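Many groups now describe folds with learned vocabularies. In that spirit, our science desk offers one protein's residues alongside their backbone shape tokens.
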Amino acid sequence: MRLRKIKQADVKLTAFFDIVILGGEQNRGHWQDVFANNHPIYLEIGMGKGQFISEHARRHPDINYIGLEKYDSIVLKAAQRLEKEFLPNLRLLRADAKNLELIFQPGEITTIFLNFSDPWPKERHAKRRLTFDNFLRTYEQILSRPGIIELKTDNRHLFEYSLLKFNEHGYRLLAINLHLHEQANPDVITTEYEDKFINENKIIYYMKVEL
């Protein structure tokens, strides 16, 4: 399901200045100004084509949402999907998750979503996982107190690894589900990957932790 690179995606993104933010460092400490309100801000790291974060924004207009993606082509695809439906409480952020502390000031984010992140199964690549120690320390900086992280994955090893890491860092486990879609639940908002996995009868693991 990897999206092919779109020619001149970086240039095409400039047409979506009302919803797409490049880099984000210029808004550090001023994200409430971006949304022109003081509602809580929820961040999805790795939004894909934006299905999950945009549906959240539709259902919860009293919450501000930011969908973060590293690659121009993916952000462009998400922006094009929203071209005919401007959601005032949603922004798409083209940035690298490694730079979160440069983009958000301490306590600026209320909730973080980690949906179907790359599991990086080889141990020598563990530091690239979004629940590796360095990333967790970053989340601890930008999250408010209390602060929430919700994680969904189809990878059992990443799930168990993340559960262990959250515990090591003092996160409190609020909810856990070892088969999220065993029974249909219309309240569960899904990603593009998730819909594919459901159709393939794959098990989806879910946890919710709190700082």
In short: The beta strands are 20-22, 41-45, 64-69, 90-94, 109-115, 143-153, 172-177, 205-210. Residues 64 and 89 are 5 Å apart (CA to CA).
